[in-house]
Amino acid sequence: MRRLAMLLMVAALALAGCVIQPALSVALDSPANGGTVSSQTPILAWTSAGGATSYRLQVATDANFSDLVVDKSGMTGPSYSIASGTLETGRSYYWRVNATRGSETTAFSPYWTFKTQGSSDSLMVNATLNGSSWSGAVQYTLTGPKAGSGASVPQSFAALPEGTYGVSYTGGGPPGASLTSITPSPTQVLSTGGAITFTLNFQSQPSDTILVNATLDGSIWSGSVYYTLHGPKGESGASVAQTFSGLPDGTYTLSYSSGGPSGATLSSITPSPTQALSSGGTVAFTLNFHRTHPDSTVYVDATLDGRPWSGRVTYDIHGPRADSSARAPDSFDGMPHGTYTIAYRHGGPTGASLTSITPQPTQTLHSGRSISFTLNFHSQSTGRIYVDATLDGASWAGEVSYVIHGPWSASKDSVPHSYGDLPSGTYTVSYLSGGPPGASLMSISPSPTQTLPEGGTIRFTLNFHAGQSVGTILVNATLDGQPWEVAVGSGKVSYSLRGPKSDSGHSVPETFSNCPAGTYTLSFLSGGPIGATLSSISPGPRQTLAPGGTISYTLNFHAQAKGTVLVNATLDGKPWSGSVSYVLHGPYVDSSEGVPDSFTNCPPGTYTVSYSSGGPHQSQLISITPPRQHLSSGGTISFTLNFKFQGGVIPGVLPPPPPMPPPPTMPPSD
Fold this sequence. Notes:
Strand content: over 45%
Number of helices: 1
Largest sheet: 6 strands, mixed
Helix content: under 10%
Distance between the termini: 30 Å
CATH topology of the largest domain: Immunoglobulin-like
């Protein structure tokens, strides 16, 4: 019996302490999959089960995670704030997390994506030599909604409008090498917020060599084509690509005879049909073919005051095939597909001016389709502009340099002057230099920008003042009527000053000296006291500085009502209080070592809570709800740290072991 009782007690204790540990797992929480984050420093949060002791986070620009921007391991909390400068605007990112418990590490979670705000439409041009990356001088042109050119690689082009872009090689590259291809294609489509890359692939060639290549609609093509090389040594060919080696140096010209891709026509020979071969050098000729479609047509029409018009007007068409005309309407048949731009040169209805090209000056022609450009003219009576000057209010004549900008532009070095037969529209006069000796320009009246009506007149007057020409501008600030200045912890501020002299500032109070006399405007950009908003600029955002005088601007801020942030905790869904370490992030940042707790005097804005350590004994934080909240002016929000018990035996007192049986009674001895 005694042995059996001992065995039962040992078994009970073993069963009480033997709890199967839950499986280790991790799941992404915020930001939402596929969403756009409002900050360049977003907080990535996740949840886990199974008592993870650390996490590893990866953020990349591609789904294969080959281009990592964040690779952070050893984190003990289920959130991470991405550092400033890590992310680019207008770009999509991929992120994933794994969890570790002791020697056990999970696989990475399925990735989620998020996108930063802004636009990042970009194009990159790279190069290779014999399959390896190469950088250096090379000339190429970029065609598309925004054309351009380059003289070296690698090179990037940013802030491009969406549409179809093409890259054409014009010259240069690695010495002794020739271009063999442009990958993935010489023509690609750039989508909004996207990025594309063109790679110019060069191959080393023997010295004293001429290489003849061909393209079809921008892609490398090989096949039967007849051509002749004229120069110090004549050659001919019947196919491409072909190499002619051991040639004497000198000037060579390539002449196309016949052949090429079926249904295509030769549009150009690049970089030029005539090139000079230097001793020990290499040149390459490229025959560029385009496959035309009988129904691919570009139409050009014209209107006068909204009605169809026909007559003499000169314009050029740029694209895969260039053309021009001196009349409208006109049509261009059999055009290869690609992006075309029409450029007006001169002509049109007598007495009218071109106001627009619709639907737009650049369009994409698809094979078997058609596009139409319409030149829209408007009849107008001509007007006249007068430019004169004053000195201290009296008329003045003499040398002064200025420029007129508008539908018609000009520059002049004296006043008074008049300009006739001008089209209607908005004109601006910009002062450059000169005027009465020792005087400074005070203003241009009635305004430096005016609208000339059809058949009307406008007058610009340059007003000069003799004497001291500069003054001082002061910028101050108040918070709820009391003086406020930029200091550590008080908040930042940014504003701009526009007038005869433009400037900007990032602190108050601030003094701007040596400012020319004239009218100035103060514009508030951002910042100010933490938790406050700008209510006014006094005495007004627009003031006039007299020669030798002083003006003062005051940025008046008003503090918004402060709010309260509460932080609580639960254990298995029931309220819990105790020691736990966490940080409150937002317009106001603070930390605490226990729950429940409250943070008062918090300015309005978006807040999050990040867990650091601690919490109920033998438990694991599984979530913070909600993960992010917006605190309104004077309001209250609440965060809850949710813990789950992960241990074995619930803490308490074990029951006493069963009583031992009494020892056997010995018989009395005789």
